[in-house]
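Q: How would the structure tokens look for this protein?
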Amino acid sequence: MTTNHKPQDRYKAVWLIFFMLGLGTLLPWNFFMTATKYFTTRVEVSQNASSVTAGPSEDIQASAAPQASKSERNSLSAIFNNVMTLCAMLPLLLFTCLNSFLHQRIPQSVRILGSLVAILLVFLVTALLVKVQMDPLPFFVFTMIKIMLINSFGAILQGSLFGLAGLLPASYTAPIMSGQGLAGCFASVAMICAIATGSELSESAFGYFITACVVIVLAIVCYLVLPRLEFYRYYQQLKLEGPGEQETKLDLISKDPSTASHPLGEEPRAGKEEPVVSAPSSQPTSRSHSIIEILKNISVLALSVCFIFTITIGLFPAVTADVKSSIAGDGPWGDYFMPVSCFLVFNIFDWLGRSLTAIFMWPGKDSRWLPSLVVARLVFVPLLLLCNVQPRHYMSVFFEHDAWYILFMAAFAFSNGYLASLCMCFGPKKVKPAEAETAGAIMAFFLCLGLALGAVFSFLFRAIV
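A: Here is the predicted structure in token form.
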């Protein structure tokens, strides 16, 4: 088969669909985290439908509450971020691992569509609860259950998408990574807009949750369109068929793009092989692929992506969010310094790094430069720890000016996005086409393992400052 027989991705439709699916994977969770202040406020003060920003009457009511109730609410607020991290990371790691082993037993369409619908329902309930009065303790417990559900289904969704992208050329993992990066940019801009407009927490949170629902619906529509595209169907066949049959299969797909089999009762035409065009699902094959062998082939890339996110989450945002401006004084820059310098700068440059892999991929998948550059990111640990992190107890401030911090954050974020995207693109290309989906799912597991390890190391990095 020659390259002339390969179909083209017309109008970059498949690329754009994967970009939208990547956006739909992380934007809901990014908006959920952006509303953290809304959640902590609701577990501090007994709420009604319009009292997320406490007014005078709420202050009087809170001051008249029993001391034991106050203590309970304060303790819930104090532990909210830690419990949220635990409830997010454990399901994320567990279900990504399960997806790596069980993806051949559950159809791909069930995993992806089921996860998107489940996350959509959780966010619809979350949006409705903005208007519903609940006591702090039940609200806290219910929120943690929602966090576990979002990250459980999010893990299955992310692992399945990377496995799906592994069936296509390496450049089609890049739009997923780019879409995920853009999700962080949207969340950062939303946070800045909320500060600039002085919106109430309840109004901002409701807007976040409804926006997340809209994005999930668009992602569902995009996924349903995917099996109708010839470019996608062609690469699905590469997984199911031997290389000797591909030319015949491609011709048949081109002649009958709308059906996957003959209608009931219709006989196949003589002398022509019956096309079998699969929907976006993962059908078990007769061959069982050894996960150990796949791991051996992608071990360097898998460990690299794990190391990248261990360093990134170890520093961001646990350390970087505690950096204080040295030039703001009493001006408005003090209010915008952290949302702009930390979150917006990180998300923009992370997105740029992820997006660059769509047009430029260096070093190659077998190059020693790639793991060397990954390890070189260790330099950001001392660089960021020596910025103006406050409060601090052991280390001195060496890079006090805001410009140093912004420069380090830009390089830190760009290297994270670019190198992580390279690893995720190259991983499935280190194995046979029939094993690419499994390799993509395993790469997603090591990505999540890096997130979990980073969350653990974040306590160490913050403690030594």
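The chain has 16 helices and no strands.

The first helix runs from residue 13 to 34.

Upvote if useful.
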